[in-house]
Amino acid sequence: MTEERQSHKLWGGRFSVPSAVALDALNRSIGTDFRLWPYDLRLSKAWAVALSQAGIINIDERQLIETGLDKVAARLAAGTTPEQADEDVHTMIDRMLHEEAGDIASKLHTGRSRNDQVSTATRLWTIEACGELDLSIRVLQQVMIDQALAVEHVLMPSYTHMQRAQPVSAAHWMLSHFWPLERDRARLAVVARNTAMLPLGSGAIAGSAYPVSRALLQENLGFTSLSQNSIDAVGDRDFVAEILFCVALLGVHLSRLAEDLIMYGSSEFGFVRFGEAFTTGSSMMPQKRNPDALELARASGARTLGDLTALLATLKGLPSGYNKDLQDDKRALFGAVDLMLLVLPAVAGSLGEISFDKDRMQSALSSTMMATDLADYLVGKGVSFREAHEAVGSLIREGERNDCELNDLGGDAFSTAHPLFGDDVIDWLDPAQSVSRRGLPGGTAPAAVRSQIEAALLAIQSALGVSRG
Fold this sequence. Notes:
The protein has helices at 21-27, 30-33, 37-53, 59-77, 89-101, 114-150, 170-175, 178-195, 214-221, 230-235, 238-264, 292-316, 329-352, 358-363, 371-379, 385-401, 411-417, 431-436, 446-459, and strands spanning 155-160, 163-169, 197-198, 225-226, 272-273, 355-356. It is built from 19 helices and six strands. It is elongated and about 100 Å long. The strands form three sheets. It has a two-stranded antiparallel ribbon. By secondary structure, it is mainly alpha-helical. Helix content is 58%, strand content 4%. The chain starts with 20 loop residues before the first helix and ends in a 10-residue tail after the last helix. Residues 1-5 have low confidence and may be disordered. The protein folds into three domains: 21-110, Fumarase C, Chain B, domain 1, CATH 1.10.275; 115-363, Fumarase C, Chain A, domain 2; 367-437, Ribonucleotide Reductase Protein R1, domain 1, CATH 1.10.40.
């Protein structure tokens, strides 16, 4: 089936019949790429300047084109929506520019292709997305610091293999989720820098035949470098894969934070009390308060991983240059970034309204968790760690046989386990002393945690360094 309607296409001169309706339906991407219109207009203005500088259009023609683009921008900002015949945002803007500026609009496409055009617009969008993600992450990080300060002097169990391990500062646990986010910010900064390589001027694949200044385009659009190979430039979507990887890993980090909070908020742990603004109830059980925002955050890691995998699988099979498969890059890109910009504020809000049951956290500590401290005690008296480990292991077995904690064992049990255990060994079963002994940078001792908080505050003061043009 073919369609008879008139359409404003950027191609079609070599075709004698209209394209099939089914093809148009599949090929039409404006539902996805419409959001690129501010960036397409921005690069189109820069291209008009470059064409004028190269003598391809005169100053009057350039001004007519720029005025037309401004009118198009005003219409789009006022809410103009695509028409059915608009194939993509670039076609739509070209159609609207012809409506505003007349036939002179046809000169704007001189020397450029949708291939380098769409890559440039997508790069501009991605650079801004990196900045938005960075800001949203920093908001969450500030909430983490606030909560860390609230529980700075509270002790709680740490866990390995989901088994109680050693006592730590609750702030130390909270900040264990801060630093993965800081690494996410660092990766996003790298993505923004890598993305700021200008493809415009690459044409469809072989470069532009007109003497436009790519250096001028780079300066006007705020890019930091120029693509070195036109074939690579139009087919390169590494920057999309890079930001999707960053977003997927960010989703993993948020999922792990959410899992901790969901688990600690259960009745079995009771370390956390959820607030009301970011939880929901049950339609059947009136007593329930469900941490839905955190559960959806936990699910976001799977969705963003799927977006990354879909893009990499698409890129894997492509020959060099531009292929229409790349049209789908924006579905993955926009979907993943949109999701994360929804999830991050919800997680920040959930964490911000959480309260910690400090007594419950501290009551979860047990003297058996100081087993490593007992081994360190013996090491301090010249015993090898291996021998000390075995001696303390025998004490643990004794406690299990008697169904009691280490501090409930008599002095004879300690001396039997190792003759170098003295009467002062009981002091080594104190959680606060255990924590205070771990004062190396990055440790859980009070001074180390205070230094960590100060480092965290310093880290979030710096915004993502990205050229905006």
